[in-house]
Target: 3-ketoacyl-[acyl-carrier-protein] reductase beta subunit
Amino acid sequence: MSKLCAVFGGSRGIGKAVAHRLAQKGYCLAIIARNLDLAQSTAKSLGGGHLAFSCDVSKEEDIQNTFTEMEKSLGHINYLVNAAGINRDGLLLRTSADDMISQLHTNLLGTMLTCKAAVKSMIQQQGGAIVNVGSIVGLKGNSGQSIYSASKAGLVGFSRSLAKEVARRNIRVNMVAPGFIHTDMTEHLKEEQLKKAIPLGRFGKPEEVAKAVVFLLESPYVTGHVLVVDGGLQLLT
Model:
């Protein structure tokens, strides 16, 4: 099986770190993001043979068109990493319905739709692997992130159920649940206060999560698993 991987959300943060690690290991990559310029910049930084695509994962037509373009340019995808995500932190009573919908569509529905498209391709390749990037708050919850937590909690049930559906097709589905990682999405957090709840005493690095993602992509007998990468984070308050 060839090593062709689509990384949604691959232009920044954890997705970008995953892309760099996979490129070092000889994968051919499709870097997908809403911002095509950022995706192209990342693809260029990886060296030759990697391509960039623009896609809004909250829109099924966009995803279908992107997979068609990828298959024409690179061939059938047999590895998929879903790292695209947004957050609109705030108390439930202050959260608009539009903000709720945008988070659910991007973080949960978007992953479902990319997996659906990828599985079709992987069946033709007689195998493949998917890793969805969730969050520790989807397992433990966090005040002010109820909608974001719900979208990431949904990924747990989805990933584990899909793993059972496609295992007979030699397709594996796993998930990583990062804790507090240094990315654009965590810049607003009060790090000094939060570090007290982390036994390792620091925020994680995107590269550290990337190692977990690649481990799951390449582990032939691991499926339906949620790998927590949080430095031993205690219960959130």
Remarks:
- The longest helix spans residues 97-125.
- The two ends are 45 Å apart (CA to CA).
